[in-house]
TrEMBL record:
Pathway: Carbohydrate degradation; glycolysis; pyruvate from D-glyceraldehyde 3-phosphate: step 3/5. Homodimer. It is an enzyme of class 5 (isomerase). This is 2,3-bisphosphoglycerate-dependent phosphoglycerate mutase. The keyword Thylakoid does not apply. The active site is at H10, E88. The lineage of its organism: Bacteria, Pseudomonadati, Pseudomonadota, Alphaproteobacteria, Hyphomicrobiales. Keywords: Gluconeogenesis, Glycolysis, Isomerase. Catalyzes the interconversion of 2-phosphoglycerate and 3-phosphoglycerate. Its EC number is 5.4.2.11. The record marks H158 as: Transition state stabilizer. Substrate binds at residues 9-16, 22-23, 61, 88-91, 99, 115-116, 159-160. The gene is gpmA_1. SUPFAM superfamilies: Phosphoglycerate mutase-like (SSF53254).
Length: 211
């Protein structure tokens, strides 16, 4: 039994490129983001991975990343489940603002605290702790049983919804999670033990000759 769980942050979005707080807003991928998603699929296929089911959020950038990745793997027919539980954290009043403009308005220290602290939410939005409160139950109740049953599982989601999950998988604490950045389009490959703990983790980033 493989007990395979692969996490993939969406490729670069239009608002990533423009340095805007995105949250639950719904921009599409850039050309670079499309290529990042496709490249992730080529990496995974090249390493011999396959999937039986994919989970993604209700937001376009994650859904399109999942679709493009699976196209590259010739797996377009597998079951795909979309859930709001996997959405990016809600940035509240910061959504749509340029990050540098936010620093000018509230100060760099305050904006950094909103972005990176575990339990301090931005005005009207979610902290990472709040995000984990919806991501983790969904993982435990819906995703993990599929992994433990032997399905090979892809989760295509967002920087903070995946940080909430990686925090538990990698046994990180509120202090160490602040420094974790999950790159766009780079799959994190987990193999789980029979007791649901992590047996092995691989960050799948390698050069592939595209010719």
């Amino acid at each position: 039994m493989e007990r395979l769980l692969v996490l993939a942050r969406h490729g670069q979005s239009d608002w990533n490129l423009k340095n805007l707080f995105t949250g639950w807003r719904d921009p599409d991928l850039t050309d670079l983001g499309i290529e990042e998603a496709r490249k992730a699929g080529r990496w995974l296929k090249g390493e011999g991975y396959g999937f039986d089911v994919a989970f993604t959020s209700k937001l376009k950038r994650a859904q399109r990343t999942s679709s493009l990745l699976l196209q590259e793997m010739d797996l377009t027919e597998i079951e795909t489940i979309r859930s709001e539980a996997l959405n990016e954290r809600d940035y509240g009043d910061l959504s749509g603002l340029n990050k540098e403009d936010a620093r000018q308005r509230w100060g760099a220290e305050q904006v950094h605290q909103w972005r990176r602290s575990y339990d301090v939410p931005p005005p009207g939005g979610e902290s990472l702790k709040d995000t984990a409160a919806r991501v983790l139950p969904y993982y435990i109740e819906t995703i993990l049983p599929r992994v433990m049953a032997g399905d090979r599982v892809l989760v295509a989601a967002h920087g903070n919804s995946l940080r909430a999950l990686v925090m538990v998988l990698d046994h990180l604490n509120p202090a160490t999670i602040a420094g974790l950045e999950i790159a766009t389009g780079v799959p994190l490959v987990y193999r789980l033990n029979a007791d649901t703990t992590v047996a092995m983790k691989t960050v799948l980033e390698r050069h592939i000759d595209e010719t």
